[in-house]
# Entry
Amino acid sequence: MRPWLNWIEHLATDQKVAGSSPAGRMFFYIIRTYQLCSFHSIADVLIRRTSMKVLIAYYSQTGTTKKMAEIIADEVKNSGCSAELKSVSEVKAEELLGYDGIIVGSPTYYGTLAAQIKELFDKSVAFHGQLDGKLGAAFSSAANIGGGNETTILSILEAMLIHGMIIQGDFKGDHYGPVAIGKDDKRSEDNCRRSAQRFCKLLKKVSD
# Structure
């Protein structure tokens, strides 16, 4: 706030000065209302940002995709959002409506997402369009380089896009979403953390 505005605010909130005339008292109440509204606006933003809910849903057989999901969930929390980590078997399709952001991870089966993940999206057709505007992201694991990681991620993102969800790529690292080749390693773990950080940063922007 500029110095002259600080001086006016100080003068107007000094009840001895403001109370000396009807105009002064009115000015006092206007400034106090402004202060209270500003405070509540800031408080509302802070509360909204710290209460944004992110679901990290995954399917994992060998544990690699689960480990990636755990890293992403931890980083989502570290980035100031609320994170819920669930195996896809624990997620009911209608629960997706209660989250601001949804991150889904799947191992690669014949170049695409696991049947358990596909089933979740198939059931979500019951509320088609109601995920519109929510933020989405995906991650995957595969046994080999060129083993279908990217096509798996894209198959998840396709379903999210059809729902009208917002997707952000990355100009560095894993462009479509974090991937692990074989077991997770430092490269994949770093990309999981980066993806989670960027996800929460964008979520805060679109929620303002």
Q: What stands out?
A: The CA atoms of residues 118 and 156 lie 8 Å apart. The first helix runs from residue 3 to 13.
